[in-house]
Structure formats: structure tokens, C-alpha cells
Amino acid sequence: MLTIQRINPGEPPVWHPDLLQVLEAADVRTDGYESPAEVADDLVLLAVDEGRVLGVAVGHPTTTPFDDSFGRFGRFASLPVPQAWLDVIAVLPTARRRGAGRLLVRVFADIMSSRGCTHVVLKVDQATSWEARVAFFESCGFSLLEGGDDDLRGAEITTLLEACRRP
Fold it and tell me: Starting from the edge strand earliest in sequence, which strands make up the sheet with 2-7, in order?
């Protein structure tokens, strides 16, 4: 049965082999990322089925408004903090289309809502299979941020929760 497990901040090792294996298999780059859960507000979620890690989501609530110095965030720039940033989400290619990604988004959105966030923003990793990733995010309720680059997506948490309840 598919479940979501949360890694609490400071629980070593955060970049454990299962998590790295998922990111590598999903062609998500880890270079340039700090280890998740180094900051108390980081949220690390694992999608697990029968003891095997199938997916991962990493994000955090923002403590400052989205930097809109280049006009990338549109109406999201004026939202009061906290809001949520979904840094990384990945599912093993062999485990896709079984609900792990949607469940990760739903649980992430639910936890961020409990922390007072009303919106989530993410940047689509353009390293590989960009179109498939965009299609997945749109199916979860994310949409292109007006005035933003084509890699920025955002959504109200209520939209994500509703879209990710559907099978």
C-alpha cells in the first residue's frame, strides 16, 4: 500500500541512497541543491510502497515574499507570507502513473496549508522530459504564472487538494 513518510528536520542521513536513487532515476539534478532538512522549515516526503521508496518531494514555506524584481511571479508576488515553494518532486519511472506523485503533491499541499500557506510555486526542471513534467503539474492544478518564464508554475492550495483527490 502506498504511504507517505515524512523525514523530520535533522534526521540524518537526508540524502540517503533511496532518495538519491529516485532523483537520479527521474533525471532530477541534485547538484546545486543543499541537503534538504538542513533548515527547520524544510519538508521532505517519501512515497513508500512495501518498504520501497518510489518518490520524493522536498519543499518549504517562504519567509519572504516571492522576489518579483523581474516580473516573474505575477499576482503571486503580492501574496502575504508564508507561501510554499515545492523545490523537488520525483517518482521512479517504473512507478509512475500509480498515484505516488499526486499523493506527494496532496500531502505537501495539506501540510503547507496547516502552516498557513495558501499558494504553492514550483519551477519545472528543464533537464529532461519537460513536456511530461508540465503535463503532470497541470493535471495536479498548477498553471503558468502570468508574466513569468515558461518554467514557473503556481496554484492555490485548495486547487491542488481538489485536483489531487481525483484518481
Answer: 2-7, 43-49, 52-61, 84-91, 119-123, 152-156, 143-144
- CATH at residue 17: 3.40.630.30
d(CA 66, CA 98): 33
Q: What's the structural domain count of the chain?
A: 1
Which residue segment(s) compose the domain that 86 sits in?
Answer: 2-165
Average pLDDT, integer, range 9-30: 67
**Nearest-angstrom CA–CA distance, 87 and 165:** 22
User: Average pLDDT for residues 153-158, to the nearest whole number?
Assistant: 92
Average pLDDT value for the chain: 81
> 152: phi > 0 → left, psi -120 to 50 → alpha, else beta; which?
beta
- Say if residues 160 and 142 touch (Cβ distance below 8 Å): yes
Task: Please write the tens of the pLDDT for every residue from 47-82.
Answer: 999 988 899 998 989 888 877 666 677 778 788 888
Does 142 have pLDDT greater than 80?
yes
CA distance 102 to 84: 17
